[in-house]
Amino acid sequence: MSDRPTVAVVTGASRGLGAGLAEAFASRGMALGLCARTQPPVPKPATAVSRSVDVTDADALEAFADEVVSTLGPIDLWVNNAGVLGPIGPLAEADPAALVRHLQVNVDGVVHGSRLYARHVRSRPGGGMLVNISSGAGSTPYQGWAVYGASKAAVDMLTEVVAAEEAKHGLLAYAVAPGRVNTDMQALIRSTSPEDFPAVDRYHRALVDGDFNPPWWVADYILGLKDDPTRANGAIRLRVPDRPPGCV
């Protein structure tokens, strides 16, 4: 049995949940492939390939994946985390260019990452796990989040189909909603007016109550699935349980 470290790729790893996942994975001795539009920092003590990559560029993302494989070895876990929230507000008032860019990042980026990782797993023995970061907004309508909810619904269905298509090749695929994680995205939500996002008050209350899932909590959940896929109970669309009060 090989004693090489587990290799994980995280997109959108320069900040927020992606950076937190990278730190948590590094603390567990995993080797990392990290990318974002801004080159991500490498958390100690990880061995890593870190590059500036736009996930909407399929060729650039594939070149990055090839470098990860040639440097670190086969990729065991791929997390499509890169995503954007805006534009927030009624769809009728949204800028068309902003809508297109949103869908390019949140949908096309996940399509590109899922496709190339499925091809990678097919190319070698041992299987692998794909995690596409989703959201409860993909199944619950929120006024002001039309394009965000639509993009996450697309991610959910994409993952369901990939899971079915690639099971025979040993690929496990999950769409994981992490719950509230106190990132820059949460700060953006809280800065939004009630006219543009009527549910904003609940996010202010979450800040007061400290009602968040830390990135390490999300990382533990993902790695728990990797260690024991039966924890999913056959489901593909999953939500990280809320962190119990007092658990830090």
Molecular structure report:
By secondary structure, the protein is an alpha/beta fold. The protein has one domain (7-180, 212-239): Rossmann fold (3-Layer(aba) Sandwich). It is built from 7 helices and 7 strands.
Structure characteristics:
single chain, alpha/beta, Rossmann fold, globular
The pLDDT mean sits at 95
Helix content: 40-55%
Name the CATH architecture.
3-Layer(aba) Sandwich
Per CATH, what is the topology? Answer: Rossmann fold
Oligomeric state of this protein: single chain
Any chance you could write out the topology, listing elements then pairs?
Blueprint: E1 7-11, H1 16-27, E2 31-36, E3 48-52, H2 58-72, E4 77-80, H3 96-122, E5 128-133, H4 146-166, E6 171-177, H5 184-190, H6 200-209, H7 215-227, E7 237-239
Parallel strand pairs: 1-2, 1-4, 2-3, 4-5, 5-6, 6-7
Would you summarize the structure shown here?
Helix content is about 40%, strand content about 15%. With about 250 residues, the protein is α/β, with parallel strands linked by helices. The chain has a seven-stranded parallel β-sheet with strand order 3-2-1-4-5-6-7, sandwiched between helices.
